Amino acid sequence: MRSEVSTASRSGYPLAVNGVPLMPLPSGALWWAEERTLLVADLHLEKGSSHARRGALLPPYDTAATLAVLARVIARLNPRCVVALGDSFHDRYAGERLHGADVETIGALQAGREWIWISGNHDPEIPGSVGGTRVSEIVMGPLVLRHEPRLGAPAGEIAGHLHPCARIVSAGRMFRRRCFAGDGSRLVMPAFGAFTGGLNVLDEAFAGLFAAPLRIHAIGEKSVYLFSRRNLRPD
Amino acid sequence: MIERAGASRSVLLIAPTGAGKTLAGFLPSLIALSQKKSRGLHTLYVSPLKALAVDIARNLEAPIAEMGLDIKVETRTGDTPASRRQRQKRTPPDILVTTPEQIALLIASREAETLFGNLQTVIFDELHALVTSKRGDLLALGLARLRQFSPGLRTVGLSATVADPPALAGWLVPQTGRGTAVADIVMAPEGAAPNVEIMKASGRIPWAGHMAAHALEDIYRLVAGAGLALIFVNTRAQAEKLFQDLWRINDDGLAIALHHGSLDVGQRRKVEAAMAAGTLRAVVATATLDLGIDWGDVDLVINVGAPKGASRLAQRIGRANHRLDEPSRAVLVPANRFEVMECEAAVEALAEGAQDSPPPRTGGLDVLAQHLLGLACGSPFSADDVYGEITGSWPYRDLDRPRFDRVLDFVATGGYALRTYDRYARIRQTPEGLWRVANPRVAQQYRLNVGTIVEAPMLKVRLVRTGRRARVGGRVLGEIEEWFIEQLGPSDTFMFAGEVLRFEGLAENSALVSRAVGEDPRIPSYQGGKFPLSTYLADRVRAMLADPANWAPLPGQVREWLEIQQFRSRLPGRDDLLVETFPRGNRFYLVCYPFEGRLCHQSLGMLLTRRLERAGARPLGFVASEYALAIWGIGDYGGLIGSGRLSLPDLFDEDMLGDDLDAWLAESNLMKRTFRNVATIAGLIERRYPGQEKTGRQMTVSSDLIYDVLRSHEPDHILLEATYADAASGLLDIARLGQMLKRISGHIIHQPLSRVSPLAVPVMLEIGREPVYGEANEALLALGADELIEEAIGEV
Predict the structure, then answer these.
(1) What distance in Å separates the CA atoms of residue B453 and residue B582, rounded to the nearest whole number?
(2) Which residues in chain A are closer than 8 Å to B773, comparing Cβ atoms?
(3) How far is residue B99's CA from residue B77's CA, in Å, rounded to a whole number?
(4) CA of B677 to nearest chain A CA: how many angstroms apart?
(5) Which of B693, B730, B485, B486 is nearest to B600 (CA)?
C-alpha cells in the first residue's frame, strides 16, 4: 500500500444563488455573510432513537453529535440568524425522546439570535420544548427557503430534503461525498445530521430541477471542492 | 478410536490428509447406531463448507448401504428447503451433517431441548481451520449449550497436523477453570515424507513482484509432465494472471482450469467435477481449494509465490497423492529473491516437521452477543448459569464477569452509558430474573442475522458489449467486492475470470464490463496480505539472512545479491532491525526490514509517517511489502539521524501504540471496515441482502457514521472494544507490531548510504506498483477540482 501524506488545505470556493454570494462550509452548512445568516438542512435529530423504537439500538448520541458540529460553526461565525430547512427532527415523537441536555444545548445556541424552523415531511410539527419561530417557508430578499425543492420554482430557491451526494472522479479515483447541488439560480443543500445518508445527484429525484449546467460543491475533510457534471457518475 | 468411544471419551484425531479421518470419526457412531434401541438424533457432524457437508453425507451413505444398516443420514445447510428443515426438527435423522450456522439456529429454537436431548456425539471436521475464526467461536458456544441439553456428550475433532495439539484438544472438552482439561489425542502415523523441491528456474530471478513470470515455461513443462497438477497461488490476482499466461503458451492445448472464490459457483462446481472425472491436467487455485475432500488424483502440487507458513505449506502439499504410502510430490516456485529465502526456510521447516499453525482464538465479544440473543430466543436463561456455561468453552474460558455483563447489557438495551433505551429493550428479565426475548420480531431479526461471516458487499460482474448505451442482460462472470469497483474509473481495465475486462459502468447490483482484448490491465485486483508471513518463517528467514554460512542452498543469483548487500551496506543480525537511509532523485528514503508481513508494515508505515511529520522530517509517502517498509520524503533522514536531531529508538518506541495509534484509528477505513463486521455480527446493524441496497440506502444508517458518533461519544463502548481486538489481530495486525517493537528495542542499526542498497531494491520497485487503497485521500479530491476552479474563477 502506498499513501501520500498530504495536508492540502484551503477555504471553500463561494457559490451564488440568484446573484446572492454564499459560502458552502465543510460542515454542510451554508453561510450568507451579507445577512450574517447561517443555513442548515436535514438535521434529523433523534434519528438514532427512532431506529431504536424498531429494534436497532443505534448509539443515542447522534443528536448531541449533530448539535456539537452546529455549535462549532455558530461559535466561529456568530450568526445573527439561523435557518433550519426542515426535517430538523426525525419524526413527530422526537420531542418526547429528546434528552434534557440536548434541549438545553439548543436553547444556548438560540440565545441572542433569531432562529427559524422550517417544517419538513419528517417534522410537520416542531417539538414544543424548543424555542424559535416555526414557518412552512420563508422569503429572504432574493432567496426563497423551503424544505422540499419545487419543480419549476422561480430563481432563488434554496432547499434540502433530497440529501444530495456525488460520486466523483478525481485524479483517476472515485469518491463519494455529500454535496451542495446547484445551477446558479437554485440550490439543494446536503443533509447536516450525523446519521443522515445521501442520494446521488444523478438520481431521477433530481431530474428537471436544474435548468443551467449542474455544479456541485463536494464536502471534503478540510474544504469544499467544486466539480461539474463531467466529473460525476451515477450509482 | 473405537476403544475410546466405548469409554465415552472425547478425542482429537490428528492425521495428514488422505488418512481416512472422516470415516474414522464416524465409525464409533455407526457401531453404536447399529445396536441402537431408540431413534432420535445421535450424531452431529459439523463441516466448515456447505459443499463438503453434501459430499460427506453422500460418501457415508455408500458404506451404510453396503453394510445393510438401518441408519438415516441427512444434511442441513442454508440450501435445505424450509419444509425439510421443519420435518427434521420433528423427526430428526440418526446422523445430521451440518454447518456451524445451522447449529446456532437450531439452538435458538423452542424444540432444541427435545431435539438434542439424546445427542451422543458431535464430530468437528477440519477443526484446525475452524478454531481460528469467529465461526469457531460461535460453534464453541453452541457446543457449550449442547452439553447442557445432553451432559454425557462425546466430541470428536478431526484435524490436520498443528503446532499445538493440546490447545485443540482443550477446545473439545469443557473447561473448569482449574488447569486445562483436554480430550485424548490420537496421532495417525505420518505418511511417507513429501518429496519437495524448490524450482531452479532457468530465467533470471526477479527482484520484486509475485507473478513468477520468469518461471512460466518451467511451470508449463511441469504441468505437461504430470497427470493432474494443482497450482496454488496466494491471491486472486495471481491466479488470474498465471492462468492467462499459461494459456498463452499452451501449445499442446492442455486442459488447464481456474478456481477461486469470486468465480460464479456454477463455474467452480464444473471445475471440481472435471477434476474428479479426471479430464483436467491442471487447476490454478487460491485458498478455496485448501480445504476439502478428494477432487481427483492430484500427483503434483506446485506452489507459486511465498509459502507464508510451514503448516500451511504442509497442508497444501498434502493435497497430492491422497495415499499414505506414497510420498506427495511438490515443487515450490519463488517469484522473487526474498521468496527464494522464504521457500528455503519453509522446506527446512517441513523436513523438521515444524508447525506454525495459529492457535485457537480468544472468543469475540460480538459473537457472544449474537449467541446470547439466540439463547434468549430459545428459552429464558439465568445470567449466572449462562456465564458458567460459556466460560466452560475454550475461547471464552478467561472471560471475566464484568465483560460478560456488559455484553448482556448490550444485547438488552445497547449498553450505552446514556441509558435511554430501556423501553426498547430486545431482551427483558422475567419476575424470576430470567432473560427472555422481548417480542417475536426480535427473534425474527435474530434468525435473519445469524452467522459470523460478513461478506464484503459484492457486485455481479456482467459482460456487455463495449460502448453500447442500452446495456441490459449480459452473462454473469462472477462477483467482485464493491469497494474494489467503487475505486475504478470509467474504462479502467482489470483482470477477472481469466480475462482482461474494461469497466463500463454500474447498473443496479452489477458492474458492467466488456472484453479488453490485447490490453494490459491497469488495476490489478490485488488482495495483499490475506495470509501474512508467519512469525516462525520470518524468524527463520532473518536467521538465514544474518549468516553467510546458511547461504549454501541458495541459487547463485541470490547469494551474489546478498554478498553485494554485505559489501555496500550490511546484513542485519537475526534480532536486529536494519534501517538504511539514502537520497535518490530529489527525495530522501528510509528503508527498514522487520519481516513481519504487509499488514503489520502498513500499520507501522502509517504510524511512522505521523511521527516523522511531527518531528519536522516531512515524509511524503510509504510503501510496504511482506519483508520491508520504505518511507520517502523531503527531509534528509540520514542527516537528521546522524546529527542526533532524529532519534531512531524514539521513532520506533513502543509508545507509538498509544496516542499515535489512537489518532490514526479515528480516521482509518480499515478500522471502519472492522467495525462494520463487528456491528453486524453483534446485531447492531442488519445484514445487507442483494436487492435491498438500492431502496435501503437512505433509510439505513451507514456503519461509518455510527462508528464516528460512537467513537467520539462513548469510546469505551463494548463494540469498540471488540473492534479494537479484531483490528489488533486482523487488518491492522497491531498485536504483531507490538511484539516487533519489543523485539527490536535496543537492536536498531542505522546504516547511512549514498545510494540504494541491493536489499532495498525489491521494496523500492513496489513504489507506484501498489495501488492506493482504502484511506481517504483529500489531496486527490482536491487535485481533480483544481483545474475546474481555475476554469470557473471568472464565472462566479
Answers:
(1) 45
(2) 1
(3) 6
(4) 15
(5) B730
Q: B709 vs A59: CB contact, 8 Å cut-off?
A: yes
- Cβ B489–A173 below 8 Å, yes or no? yes
**What is the C-alpha separation between B229 and B222, in angstroms, rounded?**
8
In chain A, how long is the greatest CA-to-CA distance? 53
- pLDDT tens, B313-325? 888 887 776 555 6
Q: Which helix (H) or strand (E) holds B694?
A: helix B693-696
Q: Identify the CATH number of the domain in which residue A187 sits.
A: 3.60.21
Which residues from chain A sit within 8 angstroms of residue B488, using beta carbons?
174
Question: Is A220 touching B (CB cutoff 8 A)?
Answer: yes
Provide, as residue numbers in chain A, all residues whose Cβ is less than 8 Å from the Cβ of B705. 194-197
* Cβ under 8 Å to A: B residues 586-605: 598, 602, 605
Q: Give how far B306 is from chain A: nearest CA, Å.
A: 18
**What residues of chain B lie within 8 A of the CB of A233, using their CB?**
490, 505-506
Residue B781, chain A, CB below 8 Å: the answer is: yes
At A41 the pLDDT is 98
Distance between start and end Cα atoms, chain A? 26
Distance (Å, whole) CA B126 – CA B134: 15
In a domain, A2, yes or no: no
Compute the distance between CA of residue B165 and CA of residue B525 in angstroms, rounded to an integer: 37
Calculate how close chain B gets to A199, using CA atoms only, in Å: 7
Per-window interface: A 30-69 vs B, CB < 8 A? 47-49, 51-53, 55-62, 64-65
Cα distance between residue B781 and residue B772, in whole Å: 13
What is the DSSP annotation of B694-714?
HHHTTTSPPHHHHHHHHHHH-
Q: How confident is the model at residue B291 (pLDDT cuts 50, 70, 90)?
A: low
The predicted complex's ipTM stands at: 0.88
> How does pLDDT run across A47-76, given as a tens digit for each residue?
999 999 888 899 999 999 999 999 999 999
Cβ pair A218:B785 closer than 8 A: yes
Inter-chain CB pairs, A–B, below 8 Å: 193
- Widest distance between CA atoms in chain B: 92
**pLDDT score, position B489:** 63
Q: Is residue A110 situated within a structural domain? A: yes
Nearest to A175 among B624, B713, B781 (CB): B781
Report the residue of A3, A192, A216 to disrupt the B interface, i.e. the one with the largest count of B CBs within 10 Å: A3
Q: How far is CA B743 from the centre of its chain?
A: 26
Q: Chain A: nearest CA to B783, how far in angstroms?
A: 6
| Alpha carbons B481 and B485: distance in angstroms, whole number | 7
In contact, B209 and B196? CB cutoff 8 Å:
no
pLDDT in tens, B81-110: 889 999 998 899 999 999 999 999 999 998
Q: Is the model's pLDDT at B658 over the cut of 60?
A: yes
Number of domains into which chain A is organized: 1
Give the full edge-to-edge strand order of the sheet including B629-633: A2-4, B619-624, B629-633, B587-592, B577-584, B748-752
A233 interfaces chain B, CB cutoff of 8 Å: yes
Q: Min CA distance, B633 vs chain A (Å)? A: 9
Q: Write the pLDDT tens digit of every residue in A29-50.
A: 999 999 999 999 999 999 999 9
Query: Does residue A34 lie in a domain region?
Result: yes
- Look at A171 and B784 and tell me if their CB atoms are within 8 Å: yes
- What are the cell numbers at B282? 491442471
d(CA A231, CA A167): 8
How many angstroms separate the CA atoms of B303 and B316, rounded?
8
Closest to B320 measured CA to CA, from B477, B192, B494? B192
Question: How far is Cα of residue B425 from the mean position of the Cα atoms in its chain?
Answer: 35
* Residue-number span of the structural domain to which A66 is assigned: 15-146+155-233
Those residues whose C-beta lies under 8 Å from the C-beta of residue B311, and which sit 6 or more positions away, are B160, B161, B162, B163, B355, B356, B357, B534
